[in-house]
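Researcher: Quick test of sequence recovery. Tokens follow.
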């Protein structure tokens, strides 16, 4: 049976179909922001037509659909979430607004021009309830049910669509919180989305826990309604294998679980890209990678060392603190649809605003009239006007020129000069973002390779690598569907955690084993609910540790059994070594705290992800030569050989300047670079 991966991005919806023989077929459709399922279904219709089947026949033959979406992220960033009420411990209603005294995020705290933080839940909807659980787990004050019922009545009167229940120390004992959450569910009988902090992130740190739970409640109704409607639509079409969603931590889970924990779908699509980068990097012998995914709306950058996908619990999404584990991805508004504009100083700027899916760049001919990066790429000859998306979208060069003139004329530039300036500006923005996560952390970029994805990524990749001094660029055959491919390489699973704050020399090993047994039982129950064979589950244990008094913690692997003082000493030594690796020093004389114990439960893929190799060919790629066309390289136009990607063979070597035209992207090989086609169809660009 075939499997399908679908990534709904800001501009295009990407679809990859993987059959039993390992053959991949790719399809794209414009994203429909008002109803993302329309673009998704259009992709499935294209895939069905390619196999000469009806949509129903095609969907009935699928083992599963793996789905990544920006729906949750966009709902939060664009403030389109639900009206939320927060039920919290009396005296702690303002924790989420005070937010540890952080006035501004990513700006100076002394910048008085920045407006104050606007909380997702206004104060009049943050409703206090008398109760108290101590950090030890002891219930000092039971829930005042009369106050809880009064709060529920106020929620009804205010017509809230979602409720977040956030009590102090519920990670240690969730009884009070569970009682109120259940009371809310009974009172509203499914009409209101209800979530509790111990269900979302049962960890210490009341601000982080409260904020994350409120975010989940804020986007919960939108996510839940979308998934319910999509599941119903797919079931009516005959889908039997189920719908799986990409989580923020590079795992996949059932749609049913995603509805309950909507916050885990933040960065759902981009979280799959590093997994794809690792697969393609390993295929050519590279484990230290900078992954960049340049689509139509944003640029997503991730640094991978020693073949490990980095995760963090320190994320901010817009102005909101999100403390779930997420792939450590950094995003900026630098992509194909990014708008070029002139600032108050008369300087040309690019992004972060985007033309998006509608109207899109001016050259799409859908009503857009502002210049974008894609318009500049077209004018410079890098993308073909007659073969964009395999010819599905003919590009209008005259509209692109008209848009570029709107910034060229005020700057007294020619169209070519303005397009080149836009091109160089966005390349510099991308390079700066890579430097932010590498050089500024003390890493030498010459030790890394650049793994590139997204429809616009291969156009700009070599220029970015040249700016950064990175010697090797890896462009997968399916670069334009980068995240969708990564979804095939992901395992089904989920992270479980429980805080137990204790000094290393005072660890209660029996309590820790009991804690892990409870987490394992929860995982087994969840996997049974998802109809997964529990014998296939693999468990991985880790713990968040820090030096006493330190603000940040480090996640350290633990053995399968953690029941002896030797195991504790091993974890302490591993922490010292990891701290020195990350920060160049350690403090072996200092006490160490254990904070949160984590259990990762995964069910490995039931299939081996393999790529059907290309037929071997010689070094000369002349059999794939499609045409010669004018492109702008360096400071002048050049007649440039353009090759058809589908006809290239393993072993072909293409010196720059040259162009490779793929159906969904274009690979630009500048002067000074040589491109080698490997057996898997990967384009490996190296400086000559």
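Model:
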């Amino acid at each position: 049976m075939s499997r399908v991966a679908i990534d709904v991005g800001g501009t295009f919806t990407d679809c990859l179909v993987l059959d039993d023989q390992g053959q991949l077929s790719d399809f794209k459709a414009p994203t429909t922001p008002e109803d993302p399922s329309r673009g998704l279904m259009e992709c499935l219709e294209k895939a069905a037509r390619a196999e000469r089947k009806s949509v129903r026949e095609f969907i009935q033959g699928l083992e599963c659909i793996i789905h990544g979406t920006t729906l949750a992220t966009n709902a939060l960033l664009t403030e389109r979430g639900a009206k939320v009420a927060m039920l919290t411990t009396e005296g702690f209603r303002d924790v989420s607004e005070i937010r540890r005294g952080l006035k501004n995020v990513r700006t100076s705290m002394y910048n008085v021009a920045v407006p104050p933080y606007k909380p997702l839940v206004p104060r009049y909807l943050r409703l206090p309830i008398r109760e108290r659980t101590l950090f030890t787990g002891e219930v000092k004050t039971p829930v005042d049910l009369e106050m809880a019922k009064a709060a529920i009545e106020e929620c009804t009167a205010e017509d809230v669509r979602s409720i977040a229940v956030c009590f102090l120390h519920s990670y240690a004992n969730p009884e009070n919180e569970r009682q109120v959450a259940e009371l809310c569910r009974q009172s509203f009988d499914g009409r209101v989305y209800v979530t509790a902090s111990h269900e979302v992130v049962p960890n210490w740190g009341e601000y982080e826990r409260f904020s994350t739970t409120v975010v989940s409640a804020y986007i919960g109704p939108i996510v839940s309604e979308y998934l319910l409607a999509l599941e119903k639509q797919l079931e009516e079409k005959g889908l039997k294998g189920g719908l799986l969603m990409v989580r923020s931590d590079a795992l996949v889970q059932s749609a049913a679980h995603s509805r309950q924990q909507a916050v885990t779908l933040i960065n759902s699509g981009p979280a799959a890209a590093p997994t794809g980068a690792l697969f393609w990097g390993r295929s050519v012998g590279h484990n230290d990678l900078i992954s960049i995914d340049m689509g139509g709306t944003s640029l997503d950058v991730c640094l991978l060392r020693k073949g490990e996908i980095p995760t963090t619990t320190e994320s901010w999404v817009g102005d909101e603190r999100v403390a779930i584990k997420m792939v450590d991805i950094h995003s900026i508004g630098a992509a194909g649809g990014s708008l070029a504009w002139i600032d108050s100083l008369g300087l040309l700027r690019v992004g972060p605003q985007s033309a998006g899916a509608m109207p899109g760049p001016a050259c799409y001919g859908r009503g857009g009239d502002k210049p974008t990066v894609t318009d500049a790429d077209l004018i410079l000859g890098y993308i073909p006007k007659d073969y964009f998306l395999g010819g599905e979208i003919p590009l209008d060069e005259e509209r692109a020129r008209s848009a570029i003139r709107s910034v060229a004329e005020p700057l007294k530039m020619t169209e070519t000069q303005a397009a080149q300036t836009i091109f160089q500006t966005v390349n510099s923005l991308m390079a700066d973002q890579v430097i932010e996560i590498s050089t500024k952390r003390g890493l030498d970029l010459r030790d890394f390779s650049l793994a590139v994805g997204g429809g616009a990524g291969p156009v700009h990749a070599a220029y970015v690598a040249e700016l950064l001094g990175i010697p090797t660029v890896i462009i997968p055959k399916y670069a334009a569907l980068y995240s969708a491919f990564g979804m095939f390489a992901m395992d089904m699973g989920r992270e479980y955690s429980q805080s137990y704050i204790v000094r290393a020399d005072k660890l209660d090993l029996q309590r820790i084993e009991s804690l892990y047994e409870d987490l394992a039982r929860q995982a087994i129950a969840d996997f049974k609910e998802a109809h997964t064979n529990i014998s296939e589950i693999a468990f991985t244990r880790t713990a968040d540790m820090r030096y006493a008094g330190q603000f940040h913690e480090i996640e350290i692997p633990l053995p399968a059994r953690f029941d002896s003082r030797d195991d504790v000493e091993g974890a302490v030594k591993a922490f010292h070594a990891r701290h020195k690796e990350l920060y160049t020093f350690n403090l072996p004389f200092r006490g160490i705290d254990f904070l949160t114990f984590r259990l990762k439960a995964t069910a490995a893929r039931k299939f081996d992800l393999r790529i059907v190799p290309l037929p071997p060919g010689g070094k000369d790629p002349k059999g794939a030569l499609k045409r010669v066309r004018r492109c702008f390289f360096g400071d002048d136009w050049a007649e440039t050989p353009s090759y058809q990607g589908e006809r290239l063979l393993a072993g072909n070597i293409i010196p720059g300047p040259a162009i490779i035209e793929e159906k969904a992207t274009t690979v630009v090989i500048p002067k000074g670079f040589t491109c080698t086609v490997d057996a898997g169809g990967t384009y490996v660009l190296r400086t000559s």
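The first strand starts at residue 2 and ends at 8.
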